[in-house]
Each structure stands twice: as structure tokens, then as C-alpha cells.
Amino acid sequence: MAKTWYFVRVKPRTEKKMKAWLTGSRIWNYLPVYVNVLIVQRRKVRNEIPVFPGYLLAHMDDAQRIQALRSNLVMMTIPLDRPRPVIHQLRQVVRAMKSAQELKNVPMADKAGRFVRIKSGPMAGLEGYLVKKGDAYSMVVNMDALGTAIEVSVAAEDVA
Q: In this structure, are 49 and 115 located in the same domain?
């Protein structure tokens, strides 16, 4: 059987549980998360939060998909007809997550700024839409298949 790439839409706040279930079933999956550190009563609390709440990426065949749907955690699966551009966008998101101090989920940028590639600095090579807010610049990286995006702040000297 041929395997297909899917975005798996899960029930609210069950992303990590579904990731563990898919891993236990030997189904390849990916859940991008970022670390959020809060100070609660003089203690640092470290949380791993999904970048795209409610979604994971999985590579599975029809039998594995039906098995996942029976897990009672999945709401729907979204097949990816052209996975290459989606994986490229996901790599861009992961690069932005690794090098950004602050990450924010935003609605998809519909060419809100000009499309640029960062030339230098920790996010060199990152592609997205540049948005200027006052004196600060931020980069919006779209995830077209989900209709969402992430926004990270960038230094003005890194953008050419």
C-alpha cells in the first residue's frame, strides 16, 4: 500500500497524547512544539506548546489511517496532494522556532508585506513576508495547508 502525508486534526489539547499513540503504533508523525517558560509562585514552569494547536503531520497508509481514526482522538485527516511545498513550509517554521525568542500564531499573511529571505544572523535563509511595525520588523511564515502562520521578530540589519 502507498503511504500518504496527512495533517491529522485532533481533539482539543490531545496533540501530545496522539503523538504518543502514533509513535506507539509505529506511524511516522511530527508535532512541532515550542517551549514556553512562565514564572509561577517564584518557580519556572516549562511547557511545550504545539505550534499549530490541534494538528500533527503523519505519513501513513489507508489501514493505519483507519486505525488512527478509531483512536477516539482524531477528528479528521487532511490528505496532502502536494506534500513537498508543505514540508518546505514546515521546515521554515521549524527554523524560525529554533532561532526566535518569541513566537506568535497569527492568521495567514495574504502577502501582507514583501516576500524576502533573511541574509544573515541566526535566521539566515528563512523565507517569509516582512512586516514593519513602528521601528521593529517581524517575519510572517505561512503554513498554507492549515491556513495559519507564525510571526517572529527579526533584526533590520539581517534583512537585505
A: no
On whether the CB atoms of residues 65 and 7 are closer than 8 A, the answer is no
Q: How far is CA 103 from CA 7, 11, 20, 36, 91, in A?
A: 21, 23, 25, 10, 15
Give the span between the Cα atoms of 117 and 114, in whole angstroms.
10
Q: What is the pLDDT of residues 8-33, one digit of tens each?
A: 999 999 999 999 999 999 999 999 99
- 17 and 77 in a single domain? The answer is yes
pTM of the model: 0.84
Q: Specify the number of domains making up the chain.
A: 2
Range of the domain at 127: 84-158
Angle subtended at Cα 84 by Cα 152 and Cα 109, rounded to the nearest 5 degrees: 35
